[in-house]
Amino acid sequence: MSLPDTTRVLTADELDLLELALAGGADWLPAGPPATLTDAENTPLAVSDGDGLRPVKPFARAAGPHWDPALRRGADDVRAAVGDTPAVAVVVAEPPTRSEVAALPGLTDGAQHVLLLVPAARRAPAAGAVGAPGLVRVATGLAEGLRAEDARRVDVVVVPWPADAPESLRWPDVGARYGAGSTVVLATRRADDDAARVAGLGSLWSDEVAALYPDASARELARAARTARRTGAVVFFTGLSGSGKSTVARALAAELDDEGLHTTLLDGDEVRHHLSKGLGFDKESRELNVERIGYVASLVASHGGVAVAAPIAPFASGRARVREHAEAAGTFLLVHVSTPLEVCEARDRKGLYAKARRGEIPEFTGISSPYETPTDADLTIDTSQVSVADAVAQVRQALVARLDS
Fold first, then answer.
1. Is the sign of the CA dihedral 239, 242, 246, 251 positive or negative?
2. 239 annotated as a binding-site residue
3. Is 240 annotated for ligand binding?
């Protein structure tokens, strides 16, 4: 397939829309001329032209229950499995209350197949909100409860859903594409009393403080609570292009965010588009790029957050400066993703190694520019030997051990 000369890098919300559209879940076509649609790593995913959307390469997957292929099934696949069976879709966009759970049997009465649709955005949820991993766990529990009551088929289905969904994207339309005769958004059936109690959850602590303490004391306790924070951290991945560091970094950031650790992901390619736009790939530019990433990561850590960075960072001197800045701000963990060059080259999704071999990309790390293997890595992972989930678990364990020490 020949690709258009124009390339468009999609935002996280647009990637959700593209994935949903390619799997038959919605009609979506980005505005503009024919273009090759890519993710932030410049991997071509689809072509948009006058004939619609055509897939090019599969989407990169991360870890977590919302990325389980058994749950993240496309609309065409789910609709085929439903067939002519009477089906109802229930959207689990936030954790249901007891009364909503109790109402589920009535809402799904008459359906032989129940689809619990869980929206999953690539963007991190707002602070305090339950993200896609938690919603999948909630929906799995709901499914088990419904199956225990009768013999109906109940499936949990993860639906790519942008954090800022356009008005044209409506759940009844999406549910129909997944094979449901009707669609219910569970949270919209919430009783007024429950809605008021849920809305008031955030003020329960401050209300109790105000009741227990005089005004002056209450103000100081509130101030202390606002400024309380744990030690921040920088998790810094380094490795060749195609080693899997970005995939592991994204999955780790999502898992840490889901656990309430405010996490900022600084991926190498995305940083190149914004923080380091205009820099070349000579040694001086590469060092400056890494230094900028390290500086921003240390700022995140200094305010109690967790920064997860995933540049190639080929030179020991640049990594040493990042460590120095990060350790002054909090905890630092250097992770060397040591996947062998031949594996990285074989799995290259962007065709960069082939171009480098032909001399079309000068100073390409591992081919025409050196990669200085870390001698001070806190953790070494070869993604040709371990899964993404196992890699995330190893990094998470090492990080938590340091934060708790």
1. negative
2. yes
3. yes
